[in-house]
Automatic annotation (TrEMBL):
Skewed-composition ranges (Polar residues): 202-212
Domain spans labelled JmjN: 19-60
InterPro entries for this protein: ARID_dom, ARID_dom_sf, JmjC_dom, JmjN, KDM5_C-hel, Lys_sp_deMease-like_dom, Zinc_finger_PHD-type_CS, Znf_C5HC2
Protein name (record): [histone H3]-trimethyl-L-lysine(4) demethylase
Family that this chain belongs to: Belongs to the JARID1 histone demethylase family.
Species this protein is from: Sphaeramia orbicularis (orbiculate cardinalfish)
GO cellular component, one term: nucleus
Length: 1405
């Protein structure tokens, strides 16, 4: 069995037994401290217990979530456990030992786990030491004790690692020399793992990062990544440590060169001059790291004497002479013990400096504060994310047993480093309590007021009357004022006992459970002995370690050493109580919020005094003075209850006896001077014993020569060395005053016996000597004033003094209400048995006569009730009414009256059933399902008989039939499967035969009525003069779908509507632009109300003008008349033309400052005028024409009249303007529809309008004048091309035909042509020109693309002067436009040819 008391390798944690759990009733729960005293004999044996309040006790959570912010503590789990911390501290020291000698320590791995160097050292020491183990070949036994398997030659590995790493350190610790030991260096071993030393100063100095989570699960197999230089610059701690590469990371090592470009240098022998130069450079500048510092200069005689070996005294063999980086002493490498074969890399220190460094005491261990401040929400998000990530499952699904095993595994691991945060010891006075409080900060609700007064409220419990802490004036945070705790998974509270060994109570407001472990007070000293025995290294520097709440130890280890331990999981809404001097610890299963406080009861007083004696031995500060608390209670004994007074008397007696003995000792020493001192008025730090730190109250010894010091009477020898006559006693009370206080306590505690004797005497008087009730009431009042505990005598007195209450009660019964028969019998019996005299009440015989009258009435009523006739039918109503009237006159409530009333109700119910079913004469009332169910329910509450059972059967049968038909109707109404009209009519006709009003049947009947009306409407629409309109059909379809009736016509209507919608969608895609704001009908109809752009101050037209019904100025009903649509369309054409002419006139008169374009902004370049409305538009707001037509049309770029310069704005060209052939295809599809659409009729009108215009345009273009003009334009196009082919005036490599056939024309290349364009190409007569302009206006208004429109535009362009400014704007606005396919390059026209060609054709001047 291993000597070291850790758990065997791989053995899982075994949960200790459960602590007691108590569930008080509501009555027990009303007295918190009384209930705790009741369960104390059982719970105290376990140290802790759990209390589950009644289920209805759920206090509201009262913390202000918005203002609650806290900074948690950081907990590294493996530093909490005592044994693990000892191991980590050992690794810190051994790592430091090797580092200050220039060697980096890496911990080896054996069998895939890190080697525990501390346990190895302990086992080897236990086996007799290194020499003994080697001599007797016990390394296999060492491996077995460390838990390694046998037969793998692990003992040899352990010996090698011990000899290389541990043995030099152990020998150094013992002060012995290491002879013939050549330690090796471990930088190159692949199996070793870098060890991060856990030195206490380093742990406490490094502040955690605000951005990253503290909790992490260390990787056991791979070493941590090395910090980069960027990390070092950003992290002040790394920058201070100057760590680079592998090796132990300790403060002061300086293993990184500050110059990033500086490389590691090899150790080599140098010439003296070079060596001196190097030495000088190192002294003046920063020393290069990772380099052996051989500072020696033979040319400098002043330095020769200082460079000699401190071991041999010689200065020869320079290359082997080492310089200590700590004290600058010199040593030969072979003079060292052990000798060094190679110079160390990096800083090196001599044995003397190593000894000084390693003997520095470690600082006390404690938790550090996090740097981030949390709210409850942000902490909860962090805590839940950490737990879910750690266990890889939702937080609520992680078993508590798994968390418990993992917690104890982590705290025992030196390899895994998991860090968590714990919001512990948060002051509720500053941040607010989780319980409601009457502190005036906000108004409480009635429910909150109740919980604010509850004794289980942790703000109230410490100051309850039975609690001793209520006699302490100040607020002691954590004892009288609760502390708050916000936990996350694995956050722990370590083994500790409460201050002054008081009780504590912890309430978990919400969140995941908190796991507790407890040790009873009888085993407290055993626990302390075990922990000191197993980890003496920790207690060596911190004797009061267990009072610091920073150390835990595995409960299994404690139990293995005889310490009884219990556990429990505290869930939300549960209390955990810890008893005096009961050690407890635990951890949180996840995110939760708890609150805790201390309290003290009368039974605590002896434990509190023992605690002060314990503190005195440890020289630990007190939270309050135990003597002061006891004396304060003794000063007012009348305010104490009997139990507390008796306990205070016993405690005070011991204190007075001890004080008398101590003062007597001072008298024997000759100290006679004394002065009174009100110690309670002094601050605690001014009345503490200079030796043991105890807070003095009753007395203290002081010296007139040393006024700043005082001691308690237990340490009078430790005050000072002044003469005895300079010493004097400072006291609070004289001995006589203490004895008087003790006497008053005794009187108070013994007053109960005197009272009890008088009560016994009063209650045991014989008949004729009974006392009056007033005397008993006085004894009862005395017990209440003196706060006597509840007892049997007091209970008997309460019963007997109830005589006066009984008298008042009887009078009240006679005057206001009737007594029950039981009350009357109890009254008679009580009056006969009372041991006291009542003078103001009726005699007993009066009540006996009333009782006899009642019993006679009961006999008559029972005879009627037990009669067998009424079971077949109800009793006669007259007889029932007579008995009920007689019973009503009695002063007592007779039970038989209820039976008679039941029989009377039975008769009334049968009458209601007969009227409902129509079995009686008279008018039959309307019967509904509710009426039937009410009758059935009432029938169950009346006395049963044959008549009642028959009526119930009839009602049940009728109700069953009615509900069945209701269910059928409900199924039909739910439309899961529609039924034909005839089926539903049959159901309704059959259901109407039932004499019950059924809502679903009535609803189904209404549906049938609507279905018949639907069929009638459909026939009227289908038999009309015209095809039905789409709106009418859609309305019928919507109505038909809502009806739960199957109709064949509905499917046909749906198909017709769907085909109409399909045609409309196809027409919309043909006409409407993408994201168009216009409807299809608006586009197809003339724009009768064209918007005219005026000043911004003028209001726009009515926004409803753009709706479908207002497009043609027709109502929805008029849109159903084809003739009306045609007439409105014709009228709209005329109005559209007039509105356009008016708009042109208005826009042509605009000044340069008017708003233009769709954006309504000021004029700015580039801008272009719309060909139709004549308004100006910005190039960035609307798309301009491409100038060159599409690639499908062969265009000569020299014919400027063929350029696509015709620009229509988005308000004038509202659609895609499909070709007439596409529209005709839509009309053919429209003719196949059996439905009329307004859009279809508008499309017919538009088509007719387009065909009419096309005929007029063709007729105009076929006139001789226009045919001649068109021929002239064709000739010019061909002439320009042929002239270019001749190549006159060009170089031999340029041909226009080749240019036009092989190049793409870039719009930008047309820019040189603009200044050369001139005059009219063709001439027309004014009449012809006017005719063409009118045709062009009407053609531009058509939302149809026609070839004649473009032809008329070309002719009119050729008859006018070239619009150079507009063409210039278009060329600049367009980027790159492509001509026909046979033009494949940018047009580059030589200026000589361009001028020649233009002059020949009269195009330019």
């Amino acid at each position: 069995m291993p000597l070291w008391p850790s758990l065997p390798l791989g053995e899982e944690f075994v949960p200790p037994p459960e602590c007691p759990v108590f569930e008080p009733s509501w009555e027990e729960f009303q007295d918190p401290l009384g209930y705790i005293a009741k369960i104390r004999p059982i719970a105290e044996k376990s140290g802790i217990c759990k209390i589950r309040p009644p289920p209805d006790w759920q206090p509201p959570f009262s913390v202000e979530l918005d203002s609650f912010r806290f900074t948690p503590r950081i907990q590294r789990l493996n530093e909490l456990e005592a044994e693990t911390r000892v191991k980590l501290n050992y690794l810190d020291r051994i790592a430091r030992f090797w580092e200050i000698q220039g060697s980096s320590l890496k911990i080896p791995h054996i069998e895939r786990r890190i080697l525990d160097l501390f346990s190895l050292s302990k086992v080897v020491t236990d086996e007799g030491g290194f020499e003994m183990v080697c001599k007797e070949r016990r390394w296999a036994r060492v491996a077995q004790r460390l838990g390694y398997p046998t037969g793998k030659n692990i003992g040899s590995l352990l010996r090698s690692h011990y000899e290389r790493i541990v043995y030099p350190f152990e020998m150094f610790q013992s002060g012995a020399s290491l002879l013939h030991c050549k330690p090796k260096h471990y930088d190159g071993e692949d199996v070793d793992k870098e060890y991060k030393p856990h030195s206490i100063p380093l742990r406490q100095s490094v502040q955690p990062s605000k951005m990253s989570s503290y909790g992490r699960r260390a990787n056991r197999c791979q070493p941590d990544p090395e910090p980069t230089e960027e990390d070092i610059e950003k992290n002040p701690e790394l920058k201070k440590l100057q760590i680079y590469g592998a090796g132990p990371k300790m403060m002061g090592l300086g293993l990184v060169a500050r110059d990033k470009g500086m490389r590691k240098k090899e150790v080599k022998k140098e010439e003296p001059g070079e060596e001196y130069k190097k030495h000088k450079d190192e002294e003046e500048g920063p020393c290069t790291k990772m380099t052996m510092r051989l500072r020696r200069n033979l040319n400098n005689p002043q330095c020769v004497d200082s460079f000699v070996c401190r071991m041999c005294g010689r200065g020869d063999d320079d290359e082997k002479l080492l310089l200590c980086d700590g004290c600058d002493d010199n040593y030969h490498t072979y003079c060292l013990l052990p000798p060094l074969t190679d110079p160390p890399k990096g800083n090196w220190r001599c044995p003397k400096c190593v000894a000084e460094e390693c003997k520095k005491p470690a600082e006390a261990f404690g938790f550090e504060q996090a740097t981030r401040e949390y709210t409850l929400q942000s902490f909860g998000e962090m805590a839940d994310a950490f737990k879910a990530d750690y266990f890889n499952m939702p937080v609520h699904m992680v078993p508590t047993e798994l968390v418990e095993r993992e917690f104890w595994r982590l705290v025992s691991s030196i390899e895994e480093d998991v860090t968590v945060e714990y919001g512990a010891d948060i002051h509720s006075k500053e941040f607010g309590s989780g319980f409601p409080m009457n502190n005036g900060k906000r108004k409480l609700t009635e429910e909150e007021e109740e919980y604010a007064r509850s004794g289980w409220n942790l703000n109230v419990m410490p100051v309850l009357e039975q609690s001793l802490l209520c006699h302490i004036n100040g607020d002691i945070s954590g004892m009288k004022v609760p502390w708050l705790y916000v936990g996350m998974v694995f956050s722990a509270f370590c083994w500790h006992i409460e201050d002054h060994w008081s009780y504590s109570i912890n309430y978990l407001h919400w969140g995941e459970p908190k796991t507790w472990y407890g040790v009873p007070s009888v085993a407290a000293e055993r626990l302390e002995e075990v922990m000191k025995k197993l980890t003496p290294e920790l207690f060596e520097f911190q004797p009061d370690l267990l009072h610091q709440l920073v150390t835990i130890m595995n409960p299994n280890i404690l139990m293995a050493h005889g310490v009884p331990v219990v556990r429990t999981n505290q869930c939300a809404g549960e209390f955990v109580i810890t008893f005096p001097r009961a050690y407890h610890s635990g951890f949180n299963q996840g995110y939760n919020f708890a609150e805790a406080v201390n309290f003290c009861t009368a039974d605590w007083l002896p434990a509190g005094r023992s605690c002060i004696e314990h503190y005195r031995r440890l020289r630990r500060y007190c939270v309050f003075s135990h003597e002061e608390l006891t004396c304060k209670m003794a000063a007012c004994p009348e305010k104490l209850d009997l139990n507390l007074a008796a306990a205070t008397h016993r405690e005070m007696f011991i204190i007075v006896q001890e004080e008398r003995k101590l003062r007597k000792g001072l008298m024997e020493r000759g100290i006679t001077e004394a002065e009174r001192e009100a110690f309670e008025l002094l601050p605690d730090d001014e009345r503490q014993c200079d030796k043991c730190k105890t807070t003095c109250f009753l007395s203290a010894l002081a010296c007139s020569n040393c006024p700043e010091r005082l001691v308690c009477l237990y340490h009078t020898q430790d005050l000072c060395n002044c003469p005895t006559d300079k010493l004097y006693l400072r006291y609070r009370y004289t001995l006589d005053e203490l004895l008087a206080m003790l006497h008053r306590l005794k009187v108070r505690s013994e007053s109960f016996d005197s009272w009890a004797n008088r009560v016994k005497e009063a209650l045991e008087q014989e008949e004729g000597n009974k006392i009056v009730t007033d005397d008993l009431e006085m004894l009862k009042m005395e017990a209440a004033e003196k706060k006597f505990p509840d007892n049997e005598l007091l209970q008997r007195a309460n019963i007997y003094t109830a005589c006066s209450v009984l008298m008042d009660f009887v009078l009240l019964c006679i005057s206001e209400r009737k007594m029950t028969l039981a009350e009357l019998k109890s009254l008679v019996e009580t009056m006969q048995n009372l041991p006291c005299v009542m003078n103001h009440i009726y005699p007993v015989f009066v009540f006996k006569a009333v009782l006899q009258t009642v019993e006679a009435y009961q006999t008559r009523a029972q005879a009627l009730v037990n009669d067998k006739d009424w079971r077949r039918d109800s009793p006669p109503p007259e007889q029932l009414q007579t008995l009920l009237e007689q019973g009503g006159k009695l002063p007592v409530v007779v039970p038989e009256c209820e039976l008679l009333e039941g029989l009377q109700e039975q008769g009334h119910w049968l009458a209601d059933v007969r009227r409902t079913l129509g079995t009686e004469g008279g008018e039959r009332q309307e019967v509904t399902l509710v009426v039937l169910r009410n009758l059935m329910e009432a029938g169950c509450n009346v006395p049963q008989s044959v008549s009642v059972e028959t009526a119930m059967a009839e009602l049940q049968e009728l109700l069953t039939i009615a509900e069945r038909w209701e269910e059928k109707a409900q199924i039909c109404l739910e439309q899961r499967q529609k039924h034909p009209l005839s089926t539903l009519e049959a159901i309704v006709n059959e259901a109407q035969l039932i004499p019950v009003k059924l809502p679903n049947i009535l609803a189904l009947q209404g549906c049938l009525t609507r279905a018949r009306a639907w069929v009638t409407d459909l026939e009227e629409i289908q038999n009309g003069e015209h095809y039905p309109c789409l709106d009418d059909l859609e309305g019928l379809v919507a109505i038909g779908r809502d009806l739960p009736v199957f109709m064949e016509e509905l499917r046909q209507l749906e198909l017709q509507v769907a085909s109409a919608h399909s045609w409309r969608d196809k027409a919309s895609k043909t006409f409407l632009k993408k994201s168009s704001q216009h409807s299809l009908l608006e586009v197809l109809c003339p724009c009768a109300k064209r918007r005219e752009r005026r000043d911004e101050t003028e209001p726009l037209d009515d926004p409803l003008d753009d709706s479908d019904t207002n497009t043609l100025g027709l109502s929805a009903q008029d849109l159903r008349d084809p003739a009306a649509i045609v007439m409105a369309f014709k009228e709209g054409e005329h109005q559209e033309k007039e509105a356009t002419l008016k708009l042109q006139k208005t826009n042509m008169c605009k000044s340069g400052l008017n708003s233009v374009c769709v954006c309504g902004g000021q004029p700015r370049a580039p801008q272009l005028r719309c060909h139709l409305c004549k308004d100006w538009f910005h190039g960035g707001c609307v798309p301009f024409p491409s100038l060159l037509p599409s690639s499908e049309v062969s265009v000569n770029p020299l014919c400027w009249w063929d350029w696509d310069s015709r620009f229509l704005c988005s308000q004038c060209q509202r659609s895609r303007r499909p070709r007439l052939e596409t529209i005709l295809a839509l009309l053919v599809a429209l003719q196949k529809l059996p439905v009329r659409l307004p859009e279809g009729e508008a499309l017919q009108c538009l088509t007719e309008r387009a065909i009419t215009w096309q005929g007029r345009a063709k007729e105009a273009l076929e006139t001789p004048e226009l045919q001649q003009a068109l021929q002239r334009l064709q000739e010019l196009k061909e002439t320009l091309s042929c002239e270019g082919d001749k190549g006159g005036g060009f170089n031999k490599n340029f041909k226009l035909s080749s240019l036009l056939n092989n190049l793409d024309v870039c719009v930008g290349s047309l820019l040189p042509l603009l200044p050369l364009l001139k005059g009219q190409v063709v001439e027309l007569s004014p009449a012809t020109r006017v005719q063409l302009e009118e045709l062009q206006l009407e053609g531009d208004l058509l939302e149809v693309s026609l070839d004649q429109t473009q032809t008329i535009h070309r002719v009119l362009q050729a008859t006018s002067v070239p619009p150079r400014e507009a063409l210039h704007t278009l060329i600049q606005s367009c980027h790159v436009l492509v001509l026909p396919v046979h033009l494949t390059g940018p047009l580059i026209i030589p200026s000589t040819w361009m001028r020649s060609c233009a002059h020949q054709n009269g195009l330019v001047q």
